[in-house]
Amino acid sequence: MNVLVTDGENRSALAATRSLGRGECRVVVVGTAAHNLASSSRFCRKGFSVPDPLREGADYVKAIVDITAREGVDVIFPMTEQSIYQLNPARHRLPSGVVLACPSAEKMLAISDKSTLCRLAESLQVPIPKTLYLSGAGDLPVVIGEIDNYPVVVKPALSKIKEGEGYLSATVSYASTREELEFLYATTSILRYPSMIQEKIVGPGTGLFTLFAENRHLALFSHQRLREKPPSGGVSVVSESVPLDEEMVEAAGKLLSAVGWNGVAMVEFKRDQRDGKAKLMEINGRFWGSLQLAIACGVDFPSLLLGHLNGRVLQAKGGDYRVGHKLKWFFGTLDHLLIRLKNRNEKLNLPIDSPSKCAAVADFLMIWEKNTSFDVFDCDDPWPFWFEGREYLRHTIRDKG
User: Fold this and answer.
1) Which domains occur in the chain, in start order?
2) pTM for the predicted model, two decimal places
3) Are 37 and 55 in contact (CB under 8 A)?
4) How far is the C-alpha of 288 from the C-alpha of 80, rounded, in Å?
5) Residue 280 exposure: Cα atoms within 13 Å on the Cβ side
6) Residue 97 pLDDT grade (very low, low, confident, very high; cuts 50, 70, 90)
């Protein structure tokens, strides 16, 4: 079977390429450069350069359609939201029989619009942080008086907003004071669009991963983030597989059933230290950055999804995977350490009792541990690690220059 994997610059694309390639699929990878992280893998047969889906959407779609026809592709795995957003409306342009491995645009919007999702969660009695909903920056003076405690978390409703021919990309921001919050809304372009202001939840973050269809979980996996980049909250750089939390499994099932979901999703929660409840953070309707951890622990989501799309009947599986296994992203952990060393905990919005800088150094030096695997480094497929190292060094020299 011929499979096209998009966004080869991403670690999730590398994990999918290795998974499907080891499963004897013929994998081709596209990215903004033909030689990228995933295409450097020995499990990639060909790499292609395509336009940036964020900035050149029409040209990107045309390139994908052309490559799909030329390479006899059977299934397209879009790995990022921007690729899903661009390819979903173009399904009719794909050659007959080609499967786009993501839910429809309508279902994607139902979970990717954080404001809509949080309102749905409230209606289903799924706990969320205390939330204020804004239709735009002009609503801030109306709601700011309702905020009792800082810091607060500011989340644009959508992670990507189409503006002209391109997209605005959103990030989660923090405001420690009323003045900081007002400054954010006065200076951040994407906050002209709908957004939310939420209380900051202190507690462990847990990701629940699922292949969901027909109102049930077909495969499940859960991990906890141990370190992130930036340290205040962001991309996972060290994560660990943990047992399934039935409260989270039930909540995720309610939400995904309500929107008629069919495919993979990552449902993120934080366990609030104050009341012990698992609070919904967001849902990502795509493969996730730490996909390799699930695969390493025995839940091969790319292969399972491919089988599901091809009509294979999957028996629902619960927590049948390795627990206590860690995944480390080497260059991500290095960035995490450098950020910690350059900044005080208060500046990073970390709790006062967070590990010291010395502890952060000690954590980094324990890079080789038992029950640990790596996101990019793989003795059986070493070239992506060398590619990433070269790119990391190149960007570091450029930034310092």
Assistant:
1) 2-102 (3.40.50.720), 103-128+202-401 (3.30.470.20), 130-199 (3.30.1490.20)
2) 0.89
3) no
4) 9
5) 30
6) very high
